[in-house]
Amino acid sequence: MRWYWGSIVRSGVAVVVFTGLYISFGRIPWKTSMGTRGFEQHSHSWLLSSEVYNSLPLNVTIEILVGSIPPIKKYLTVGLSSVKRKKASYLIDTLQSIFSQSSKEELSEMVVVVLLADFDQDWVYATSQKISTLFEDHLKQGQLLVAHVPQDFYPPLTGLKRNFNDPPDRVAFRSKQNVDYSYLVHFGANFSQYFIMVEDDVTCAKGFLSSIRQHVLRMEGTRWTTLEFSKLGYIGKLYHSEDLPLLARFLYLFYQEMPCDFLLTHFRTLLMQDKVIRMKPSLFQHMGKFSSYRGVYNHLKDDDFQEEPSDNPPANVLTNIQTYNKNHPVNAYRQGSDFFWGMSPKKGDYFLVVFQNPLLLSRISIQTGSEQKDTLLSAVLEVGYGGQDSHTAFHCSDFHSLGSFHEGKFEMKDVDQVVKSHVSCLKIEVTQEQSDWVKINTIQVWEKK
Protein backbone atom coordinates (compact mmCIF):
# COMPACT_ATOMS: atom_id res chain seq x y z
CA MET A 1 0.00 0.00 0.00
CA ARG A 2 2.86 2.38 0.84
CA TRP A 3 4.41 1.74 -2.58
CA TYR A 4 1.02 2.22 -4.26
CA TRP A 5 0.40 5.63 -2.72
CA GLY A 6 4.01 6.64 -3.28
CA SER A 7 3.67 5.88 -6.99
CA ILE A 8 0.44 7.89 -7.17
CA VAL A 9 2.08 10.86 -5.48
CA ARG A 10 5.12 10.74 -7.79
CA SER A 11 2.91 10.42 -10.85
CA GLY A 12 0.77 13.33 -9.69
CA VAL A 13 3.80 15.53 -9.06
CA ALA A 14 5.21 14.65 -12.48
CA VAL A 15 1.93 15.58 -14.19
CA VAL A 16 1.73 18.90 -12.33
CA VAL A 17 5.38 19.81 -13.00
CA PHE A 18 5.42 18.97 -16.68
CA THR A 19 1.93 20.39 -17.30
CA GLY A 20 3.24 23.63 -15.86
CA LEU A 21 6.20 23.44 -18.18
CA TYR A 22 3.93 22.89 -21.16
CA ILE A 23 1.84 25.94 -20.34
CA SER A 24 4.81 28.18 -19.55
CA PHE A 25 6.29 28.55 -23.04
CA GLY A 26 5.19 29.44 -26.57
CA ARG A 27 6.67 28.57 -29.98
CA ILE A 28 9.58 30.76 -31.19
CA PRO A 29 11.33 30.19 -34.55
CA TRP A 30 15.04 29.50 -35.11
CA LYS A 31 17.31 32.46 -35.74
CA THR A 32 20.85 32.54 -37.08
CA SER A 33 23.23 35.48 -36.86
CA MET A 34 26.87 36.32 -36.23
CA GLY A 35 27.98 36.98 -32.66
CA THR A 36 30.83 39.03 -31.27
CA ARG A 37 34.35 38.30 -32.52
CA GLY A 38 32.79 36.59 -35.54
CA PHE A 39 31.31 33.69 -33.60
CA GLU A 40 28.29 32.02 -35.15
CA GLN A 41 25.07 32.25 -33.14
CA HIS A 42 22.12 29.90 -33.09
CA SER A 43 18.97 31.00 -31.26
CA HIS A 44 17.50 27.71 -30.07
CA SER A 45 13.75 27.67 -29.51
CA TRP A 46 13.61 24.62 -27.25
CA LEU A 47 11.50 22.63 -29.71
CA LEU A 48 11.00 18.92 -28.98
CA SER A 49 11.26 16.42 -31.81
CA SER A 50 8.63 14.13 -30.24
CA GLU A 51 4.99 14.92 -30.95
CA VAL A 52 4.14 13.45 -27.57
CA TYR A 53 5.67 16.42 -25.77
CA ASN A 54 4.33 19.04 -28.20
CA SER A 55 6.51 22.16 -28.02
CA LEU A 56 8.14 23.79 -25.01
CA PRO A 57 10.14 26.70 -26.42
CA LEU A 58 12.44 29.02 -24.54
CA ASN A 59 14.36 31.60 -26.49
CA VAL A 60 18.13 31.54 -25.92
CA THR A 61 21.01 32.44 -28.20
CA ILE A 62 23.86 29.94 -28.22
CA GLU A 63 27.07 31.06 -29.89
CA ILE A 64 29.11 28.38 -31.62
CA LEU A 65 32.70 29.47 -31.01
CA VAL A 66 34.61 26.71 -32.79
CA GLY A 67 33.52 23.55 -34.56
CA SER A 68 30.34 22.81 -36.45
CA ILE A 69 27.14 20.87 -35.85
CA PRO A 70 27.56 17.21 -36.87
CA PRO A 71 25.90 16.50 -40.24
CA ILE A 72 24.72 13.06 -39.07
CA LYS A 73 23.36 11.83 -35.77
CA LYS A 74 25.97 10.02 -33.69
CA TYR A 75 25.78 7.46 -30.90
CA LEU A 76 27.01 9.58 -27.97
CA THR A 77 27.38 13.22 -27.02
CA VAL A 78 29.80 13.97 -24.18
CA GLY A 79 28.71 17.26 -22.64
CA LEU A 80 30.64 19.42 -20.18
CA SER A 81 30.41 22.96 -18.92
CA SER A 82 33.48 24.97 -17.91
CA VAL A 83 34.10 28.28 -16.17
CA LYS A 84 37.17 30.30 -15.31
CA ARG A 85 38.76 28.93 -12.15
CA LYS A 86 40.63 30.88 -9.49
CA LYS A 87 43.35 28.25 -9.29
CA ALA A 88 44.18 25.32 -11.57
CA SER A 89 42.28 24.65 -14.80
CA TYR A 90 41.64 21.07 -15.94
CA LEU A 91 39.58 21.55 -19.11
CA ILE A 92 42.38 20.81 -21.58
CA ASP A 93 43.46 17.71 -19.65
CA THR A 94 39.86 16.51 -19.62
CA LEU A 95 39.52 16.89 -23.38
CA GLN A 96 42.84 15.15 -23.95
CA SER A 97 41.67 12.24 -21.81
CA ILE A 98 38.37 11.93 -23.68
CA PHE A 99 40.10 11.75 -27.06
CA SER A 100 43.18 9.73 -26.08
CA GLN A 101 41.14 7.06 -24.30
CA SER A 102 38.91 6.51 -27.35
CA SER A 103 39.68 4.50 -30.47
CA LYS A 104 39.29 5.89 -33.98
CA GLU A 105 36.07 3.92 -34.39
CA GLU A 106 34.70 5.21 -31.08
CA LEU A 107 35.53 8.82 -31.97
CA SER A 108 33.59 8.47 -35.21
CA GLU A 109 30.47 7.80 -33.13
CA MET A 110 31.02 10.60 -30.62
CA VAL A 111 30.80 14.37 -30.41
CA VAL A 112 32.15 16.35 -27.46
CA VAL A 113 30.22 19.54 -26.63
CA VAL A 114 31.92 22.12 -24.40
CA LEU A 115 29.94 25.05 -23.04
CA LEU A 116 32.28 27.86 -21.98
CA ALA A 117 29.92 29.26 -19.36
CA ASP A 118 31.92 32.11 -17.85
CA PHE A 119 30.84 35.74 -18.29
CA ASP A 120 34.46 36.86 -18.77
CA GLN A 121 34.54 37.31 -22.54
CA ASP A 122 38.33 37.54 -22.68
CA TRP A 123 38.63 34.16 -20.96
CA VAL A 124 36.00 32.65 -23.26
CA TYR A 125 37.79 33.91 -26.36
CA ALA A 126 41.26 32.85 -25.16
CA THR A 127 40.05 29.39 -24.11
CA SER A 128 38.21 28.78 -27.38
CA GLN A 129 41.32 29.74 -29.33
CA LYS A 130 43.48 27.40 -27.24
CA ILE A 131 41.04 24.54 -27.88
CA SER A 132 41.00 25.39 -31.57
CA THR A 133 44.79 25.13 -31.73
CA LEU A 134 45.25 22.00 -29.63
CA PHE A 135 42.34 19.99 -31.03
CA GLU A 136 42.33 21.10 -34.66
CA ASP A 137 42.03 17.56 -36.05
CA HIS A 138 39.06 16.67 -33.85
CA LEU A 139 37.33 19.91 -34.83
CA LYS A 140 37.82 19.18 -38.53
CA GLN A 141 36.40 15.68 -38.09
CA GLY A 142 33.26 16.96 -36.37
CA GLN A 143 34.17 15.41 -33.02
CA LEU A 144 34.29 18.63 -30.99
CA LEU A 145 32.03 21.65 -30.64
CA VAL A 146 32.60 24.66 -28.36
CA ALA A 147 29.73 27.01 -27.50
CA HIS A 148 28.84 29.95 -25.27
CA VAL A 149 25.66 31.64 -24.03
CA PRO A 150 25.79 35.43 -23.49
CA GLN A 151 25.05 36.73 -20.00
CA ASP A 152 21.93 38.53 -21.24
CA PHE A 153 20.15 35.20 -21.59
CA TYR A 154 20.62 34.18 -17.95
CA PRO A 155 17.87 34.65 -15.34
CA PRO A 156 18.55 36.68 -12.16
CA LEU A 157 21.47 35.30 -10.15
CA THR A 158 21.24 37.57 -7.11
CA GLY A 159 18.59 37.93 -4.44
CA LEU A 160 17.71 34.25 -4.77
CA LYS A 161 16.21 31.87 -2.22
CA ARG A 162 18.70 30.75 0.41
CA ASN A 163 17.58 27.14 0.57
CA PHE A 164 19.77 24.85 2.72
CA ASN A 165 20.96 28.05 4.45
CA ASP A 166 23.71 28.45 1.85
CA PRO A 167 25.54 31.81 1.73
CA PRO A 168 24.41 34.12 -1.10
CA ASP A 169 27.51 33.55 -3.24
CA ARG A 170 27.05 29.78 -2.95
CA VAL A 171 23.40 30.10 -3.99
CA ALA A 172 24.41 32.26 -6.97
CA PHE A 173 27.13 29.79 -7.98
CA ARG A 174 24.98 26.66 -7.91
CA SER A 175 21.99 28.45 -9.46
CA LYS A 176 24.07 29.63 -12.41
CA GLN A 177 25.51 26.12 -12.69
CA ASN A 178 21.98 24.75 -13.09
CA VAL A 179 21.30 27.18 -15.90
CA ASP A 180 24.66 26.30 -17.51
CA TYR A 181 23.68 22.64 -17.59
CA SER A 182 20.18 23.50 -18.76
CA TYR A 183 21.63 25.27 -21.80
CA LEU A 184 24.21 22.53 -22.33
CA VAL A 185 21.76 19.62 -22.45
CA HIS A 186 19.35 21.65 -24.57
CA PHE A 187 22.05 22.46 -27.10
CA GLY A 188 23.25 18.85 -27.27
CA ALA A 189 19.80 17.28 -27.54
CA ASN A 190 19.84 16.49 -31.26
CA PHE A 191 23.41 15.42 -31.94
CA SER A 192 23.23 11.77 -30.91
CA GLN A 193 21.16 8.92 -29.54
CA TYR A 194 22.56 9.27 -26.02
CA PHE A 195 24.06 12.09 -23.96
CA ILE A 196 26.47 11.73 -21.04
CA MET A 197 27.20 14.58 -18.64
CA VAL A 198 30.69 14.97 -17.19
CA GLU A 199 32.62 17.75 -15.48
CA ASP A 200 35.59 19.70 -16.79
CA ASP A 201 38.03 18.03 -14.38
CA VAL A 202 37.78 14.28 -15.06
CA THR A 203 39.85 11.51 -16.56
CA CYS A 204 38.21 8.76 -18.58
CA ALA A 205 38.50 5.00 -18.70
CA LYS A 206 39.91 3.47 -21.85
CA GLY A 207 37.19 2.72 -24.38
CA PHE A 208 34.45 4.25 -22.25
CA LEU A 209 32.07 4.56 -25.23
CA SER A 210 32.25 0.81 -25.90
CA SER A 211 31.64 0.09 -22.22
CA ILE A 212 28.62 2.39 -22.23
CA ARG A 213 27.27 0.66 -25.33
CA GLN A 214 27.60 -2.77 -23.68
CA HIS A 215 25.68 -1.62 -20.62
CA VAL A 216 22.97 0.01 -22.73
CA LEU A 217 22.53 -3.22 -24.69
CA ARG A 218 22.16 -5.15 -21.43
CA MET A 219 19.37 -2.75 -20.44
CA GLU A 220 17.30 -3.52 -23.54
CA GLY A 221 13.69 -4.13 -22.59
CA THR A 222 14.02 -2.02 -19.43
CA ARG A 223 12.79 1.55 -19.36
CA TRP A 224 15.35 3.83 -17.74
CA THR A 225 15.88 7.57 -17.42
CA THR A 226 19.43 7.73 -16.05
CA LEU A 227 22.33 5.30 -16.10
CA GLU A 228 25.20 6.28 -13.81
CA PHE A 229 28.84 5.59 -14.68
CA SER A 230 30.27 7.37 -11.64
CA LYS A 231 29.10 7.73 -8.07
CA LEU A 232 30.21 11.37 -7.81
CA GLY A 233 27.79 14.25 -8.27
CA TYR A 234 26.68 14.65 -11.86
CA ILE A 235 29.73 13.02 -13.43
CA GLY A 236 28.96 10.18 -15.82
CA LYS A 237 25.16 10.50 -15.98
CA LEU A 238 23.76 9.03 -19.20
CA TYR A 239 20.43 10.08 -20.73
CA HIS A 240 18.37 9.31 -23.79
CA SER A 241 18.70 12.40 -25.97
CA GLU A 242 14.94 12.40 -26.41
CA ASP A 243 14.62 13.22 -22.67
CA LEU A 244 17.01 16.19 -22.78
CA PRO A 245 14.48 18.89 -23.74
CA LEU A 246 12.47 18.09 -20.63
CA LEU A 247 15.63 17.92 -18.50
CA ALA A 248 16.75 21.31 -19.82
CA ARG A 249 13.46 22.93 -18.87
CA PHE A 250 13.40 21.18 -15.52
CA LEU A 251 16.84 22.52 -14.58
CA TYR A 252 15.89 25.99 -15.79
CA LEU A 253 12.53 26.09 -13.99
CA PHE A 254 14.01 25.08 -10.61
CA TYR A 255 17.47 26.60 -11.06
CA GLN A 256 17.49 28.47 -7.72
CA GLU A 257 15.97 25.71 -5.59
CA MET A 258 18.83 23.24 -5.04
CA PRO A 259 22.17 21.95 -6.43
CA CYS A 260 22.23 20.26 -9.81
CA ASP A 261 22.83 16.73 -8.52
CA PHE A 262 19.71 17.04 -6.32
CA LEU A 263 17.65 18.18 -9.30
CA LEU A 264 18.94 15.31 -11.44
CA THR A 265 17.77 12.86 -8.78
CA HIS A 266 14.31 14.44 -8.71
CA PHE A 267 14.13 14.38 -12.50
CA ARG A 268 14.90 10.66 -12.51
CA THR A 269 12.21 9.86 -9.95
CA LEU A 270 9.64 12.08 -11.68
CA LEU A 271 10.16 10.05 -14.81
CA MET A 272 9.37 6.96 -12.72
CA GLN A 273 12.83 5.47 -12.25
CA ASP A 274 12.90 5.00 -8.50
CA LYS A 275 16.09 3.00 -8.25
CA VAL A 276 19.59 4.27 -8.98
CA ILE A 277 21.10 2.22 -11.81
CA ARG A 278 24.84 2.57 -11.37
CA MET A 279 27.31 0.62 -13.43
CA LYS A 280 30.63 -0.66 -12.12
CA PRO A 281 33.44 -0.07 -12.52
CA SER A 282 33.09 3.70 -12.87
CA LEU A 283 34.23 5.07 -16.21
CA PHE A 284 35.12 8.61 -15.07
CA GLN A 285 37.39 9.81 -12.28
CA HIS A 286 37.42 13.23 -10.66
CA MET A 287 40.94 14.63 -10.93
CA GLY A 288 40.52 18.27 -9.95
CA LYS A 289 42.13 19.34 -6.69
CA PHE A 290 40.53 22.77 -6.48
CA SER A 291 36.82 23.47 -6.90
CA SER A 292 35.44 26.02 -9.36
CA TYR A 293 33.62 27.47 -6.33
CA ARG A 294 36.02 29.80 -4.49
CA GLY A 295 38.94 27.58 -5.52
CA VAL A 296 38.55 25.50 -2.35
CA TYR A 297 40.43 22.21 -2.05
CA ASN A 298 38.40 19.24 -3.32
CA HIS A 299 39.68 15.74 -2.63
CA LEU A 300 36.74 13.73 -4.03
CA LYS A 301 37.71 10.44 -5.68
CA ASP A 302 35.65 7.55 -7.01
CA ASP A 303 37.14 4.35 -5.63
CA ASP A 304 35.13 2.29 -8.14
CA PHE A 305 36.98 3.84 -11.10
CA GLN A 306 39.10 1.62 -13.34
CA GLU A 307 41.18 3.15 -16.10
CA GLU A 308 40.91 -0.02 -18.15
CA PRO A 309 37.44 -1.58 -17.73
CA SER A 310 37.08 -5.33 -18.00
CA ASP A 311 35.72 -7.00 -21.13
CA ASN A 312 33.33 -9.51 -19.55
CA PRO A 313 32.26 -11.10 -22.84
CA PRO A 314 28.87 -12.86 -23.07
CA ALA A 315 28.63 -15.80 -20.68
CA ASN A 316 26.22 -17.98 -18.74
CA VAL A 317 26.58 -17.94 -14.97
CA LEU A 318 25.36 -20.61 -12.55
CA THR A 319 26.00 -21.95 -9.07
CA ASN A 320 24.85 -24.67 -6.70
CA ILE A 321 25.08 -22.29 -3.74
CA GLN A 322 21.56 -21.52 -2.55
CA THR A 323 20.67 -18.03 -3.81
CA TYR A 324 19.01 -15.56 -1.48
CA ASN A 325 16.01 -13.66 -2.85
CA LYS A 326 16.71 -12.14 -6.29
CA ASN A 327 20.47 -11.78 -5.91
CA HIS A 328 21.11 -14.04 -8.89
CA PRO A 329 24.54 -15.38 -9.95
CA VAL A 330 24.62 -13.29 -13.13
CA ASN A 331 24.59 -10.10 -11.03
CA ALA A 332 28.23 -10.66 -10.09
CA TYR A 333 29.29 -10.79 -13.74
CA ARG A 334 27.21 -8.13 -15.47
CA GLN A 335 29.01 -5.19 -13.77
CA GLY A 336 25.98 -3.36 -12.51
CA SER A 337 25.21 -2.21 -9.00
CA ASP A 338 23.72 -5.61 -8.06
CA PHE A 339 25.58 -8.63 -6.71
CA PHE A 340 25.23 -12.34 -6.00
CA TRP A 341 24.23 -13.25 -2.46
CA GLY A 342 24.11 -16.88 -1.38
CA MET A 343 23.56 -18.85 1.79
CA SER A 344 26.33 -20.62 3.70
CA PRO A 345 28.46 -22.43 1.08
CA LYS A 346 29.72 -25.95 1.69
CA LYS A 347 32.99 -27.55 0.67
CA GLY A 348 32.80 -28.49 -3.00
CA ASP A 349 30.18 -25.86 -3.89
CA TYR A 350 30.95 -23.94 -7.05
CA PHE A 351 30.27 -20.73 -8.94
CA LEU A 352 30.70 -21.22 -12.69
CA VAL A 353 31.07 -18.76 -15.57
CA VAL A 354 30.74 -20.41 -19.01
CA PHE A 355 31.85 -18.14 -21.85
CA GLN A 356 29.79 -18.27 -25.02
CA ASN A 357 33.03 -18.29 -27.01
CA PRO A 358 36.43 -19.51 -25.74
CA LEU A 359 38.86 -16.70 -24.99
CA LEU A 360 42.47 -16.04 -24.04
CA LEU A 361 42.54 -14.39 -20.64
CA SER A 362 44.99 -11.67 -19.62
CA ARG A 363 43.62 -10.62 -16.24
CA ILE A 364 41.05 -11.71 -13.64
CA SER A 365 39.66 -9.79 -10.65
CA ILE A 366 37.04 -11.11 -8.20
CA GLN A 367 35.76 -9.22 -5.16
CA THR A 368 33.61 -10.74 -2.41
CA GLY A 369 32.17 -9.52 0.88
CA SER A 370 31.10 -6.16 2.22
CA GLU A 371 32.41 -4.37 5.29
CA GLN A 372 34.16 -7.56 6.44
CA LYS A 373 30.93 -9.55 6.17
CA ASP A 374 29.80 -12.28 3.75
CA THR A 375 33.35 -12.81 2.50
CA LEU A 376 34.30 -16.01 0.71
CA LEU A 377 36.76 -17.37 3.27
CA SER A 378 38.30 -20.36 1.51
CA ALA A 379 38.17 -21.04 -2.22
CA VAL A 380 40.26 -21.59 -5.33
CA LEU A 381 39.83 -20.29 -8.85
CA GLU A 382 40.10 -22.64 -11.81
CA VAL A 383 39.87 -22.34 -15.58
CA GLY A 384 38.41 -25.14 -17.66
CA TYR A 385 37.75 -26.26 -21.19
CA GLY A 386 34.54 -27.41 -22.84
CA GLY A 387 31.42 -25.26 -22.86
CA GLN A 388 27.82 -25.91 -23.92
CA ASP A 389 26.67 -29.15 -25.57
CA SER A 390 23.88 -29.49 -28.08
CA HIS A 391 21.30 -29.67 -25.30
CA THR A 392 22.49 -26.37 -23.77
CA ALA A 393 23.80 -28.14 -20.69
CA PHE A 394 26.84 -26.54 -19.14
CA HIS A 395 29.95 -28.56 -18.63
CA CYS A 396 33.66 -27.98 -18.25
CA SER A 397 36.54 -30.39 -18.02
CA ASP A 398 40.30 -30.53 -17.52
CA PHE A 399 40.36 -27.79 -14.91
CA HIS A 400 43.56 -25.90 -14.16
CA SER A 401 43.97 -24.11 -10.81
CA LEU A 402 45.11 -20.50 -10.87
CA GLY A 403 45.39 -20.07 -7.11
CA SER A 404 43.52 -19.37 -3.90
CA PHE A 405 41.43 -16.44 -2.70
CA HIS A 406 43.05 -14.12 -0.19
CA GLU A 407 40.78 -12.20 2.20
CA GLY A 408 37.87 -12.77 -0.12
CA LYS A 409 39.64 -11.49 -3.22
CA PHE A 410 41.36 -12.96 -6.25
CA GLU A 411 43.60 -10.83 -8.45
CA MET A 412 45.80 -12.10 -11.25
CA LYS A 413 47.49 -10.33 -14.13
CA ASP A 414 49.32 -11.85 -17.11
CA VAL A 415 47.07 -14.92 -17.00
CA ASP A 416 48.12 -15.73 -20.56
CA GLN A 417 51.64 -16.40 -19.30
CA VAL A 418 50.26 -19.27 -17.20
CA VAL A 419 47.33 -20.42 -19.35
CA LYS A 420 48.47 -20.08 -22.93
CA SER A 421 45.36 -21.49 -24.65
CA HIS A 422 41.76 -20.34 -24.91
CA VAL A 423 39.50 -21.29 -22.01
CA SER A 424 35.76 -21.86 -21.89
CA CYS A 425 35.02 -21.70 -18.18
CA LEU A 426 35.94 -19.95 -14.97
CA LYS A 427 35.08 -21.75 -11.74
CA ILE A 428 35.21 -20.71 -8.10
CA GLU A 429 35.29 -23.82 -5.91
CA VAL A 430 34.70 -23.61 -2.16
CA THR A 431 37.38 -25.50 -0.25
CA GLN A 432 36.01 -25.14 3.27
CA GLU A 433 32.50 -24.92 4.66
CA GLN A 434 31.53 -21.61 6.26
CA SER A 435 28.55 -20.54 8.34
CA ASP A 436 28.56 -16.99 6.98
CA TRP A 437 26.73 -16.26 3.78
CA VAL A 438 28.72 -15.19 0.73
CA LYS A 439 28.40 -12.07 -1.36
CA ILE A 440 30.18 -11.96 -4.73
CA ASN A 441 30.30 -8.32 -5.80
CA THR A 442 32.18 -8.48 -9.09
CA ILE A 443 33.78 -10.98 -11.40
CA GLN A 444 35.87 -9.19 -14.02
CA VAL A 445 37.86 -10.69 -16.88
CA TRP A 446 40.05 -9.10 -19.49
CA GLU A 447 40.84 -10.69 -22.86
CA LYS A 448 44.32 -10.78 -24.33
CA LYS A 449 44.30 -8.31 -27.22
Fold and architecture overview:
With 449 residues, the chain is α+β, with helices and mostly antiparallel strands. The chain has nine helices and 20 strands. It has helices at 2-24, 91-100, 104-107, 121-134, 136-140, 168-187, 208-218, 244-253, 260-270; strands at residues 31-34, 40-44, 60-66, 74-82, 110-116, 144-148, 192-197, 202-204, 227-228, 237-240, 284-286, 315-319, 340-342, 350-359, 361-368, 379-388, 394-404, 409-413, 423-430, 438-447. The strands form four sheets. A nine-stranded mixed beta sheet has the order 1-2-3-6-5-4-7-10-9. A hairpin with an 8-residue loop joins strand 9 and strand 10. Helix 6 (168-187) packs antiparallel against helix 8 (244-253). It is elongated. The protein starts with a helix and ends with a strand. The model is unreliable at 1-11, 22-39, 43-55 and 389-393 (pLDDT under 50).
Would you summarize the structure shown here?
This protein has helices spanning 2-24, 91-100, 104-107, 121-134, 136-140, 168-187, 208-218, 244-253, 260-270; strands at 31-34, 40-44, 60-66, 74-82, 110-116, 144-148, 192-197, 202-204, 227-228, 237-240, 284-286, 315-319, 340-342, 350-359, 361-368, 379-388, 394-404, 409-413, 423-430, 438-447.
Which band does the percent of strand residues land in? 25-35%
Terminus-to-terminus distance:
53 Å
Helix tally? 9
Number of strands: 20
Radius of gyration from the alpha-carbon trace, in angstroms: 25 Å
Largest sheet: 9 strands, mixed
Give the overall pLDDT as a whole number. Answer: 84
Secondary-structure class: alpha+beta
Helix content: 10-25%
- What low-confidence regions span 5 or more consecutive residues with pLDDT below 50? 1-11, 22-39, 43-55, 389-393
Instruction: Please provide the ordered H/E string of secondary-structure elements.
Output: HEEEEHHEHHEHEEHEEHHEEEEEEEEEE
Shape: elongated
Strand order of the largest sheet: 1-2-3-6-5-4-7-10-9
